[in-house]
Amino acid sequence: MSEKPANPQTVQLQIEIDPATANGAFVNMALVNHTDTEFTIDLIYVQPQAPKATVRARVITTPKHMKRLLGAIQDNLAKYEARFGTIDLGDAPRFPQAGSVN
C-alpha cells in the first residue's frame, strides 16, 4: 500500500529563455481555434496594406490551461487599466479576410 508523504517537497521551477525568444515578436492579430482536446492560438503580424500575413508563433494548449491563461490575461489587463487608464479600442483595424495558413 502506498502512502502519501506527510510534507510533499516543493519544487522550485527555473525557467530559461534563449536570446531569440527573449527578443519577442511583434504581433497585431491572433486567431484562436479549438477541438475537444486542445486550443490553438496563432499570433500573426499583418503589415499595413499587405495581402499576406505571417504567423510569428503558434501555441497549442489544453482547455484547462487555456482557461487559466485567459484568467491571467484578464487579471493583468485589469491591473494595467487600473494603473494607466482604460484602453480605448477605437476603430478596429481592417485586415484582409484570413485564408489558409501555410
Compact description:
By secondary structure, the chain is an alpha+beta fold. The chain has 2 helices and 3 strands; from the N terminus they run H-E-E-E-H.
Structure commentary:
The structure is a single chain. The chain has helices spanning 19-23, 63-84; strands at residues 29-34, 39-46, 53-61. The chain is α+β, with helices and mostly antiparallel strands and 102 residues long. It has a domain at 25-84. A 3-stranded antiparallel sheet has the order 1-2-3. The chain contains 2 helices and 3 strands.
Describe how the helices and strands are arranged.
Elements (H helix, E strand, L loop, with lengths): L18 H5 L5 E6 L4 E8 L6 E9 L1 H22 L18
Antiparallel strand pairs: 1-2, 2-3
What labels describe this entry?
single chain; alpha+beta; 2 helices; 3 strands; 26% helix
Low-pLDDT runs: none
Distance between the termini: 52 Å
Order of helices and strands: HEEEH
Which descriptor suits the 3D outline?
A: extended
Helix count from the secondary structure assignment? 2
Give the integer mean of the pLDDT values. 88
Instruction: Quickly give the structural class.
Output: alpha+beta
The count of strands amounts to 3
- Beta content comes to 15-25%
* Whole-angstrom Rg: 19 Å
Main beta sheet strand tally, sense and closure: 3 strands, antiparallel
- Widest sheet: strand ordering: 1-2-3
Helix content: 25-40%
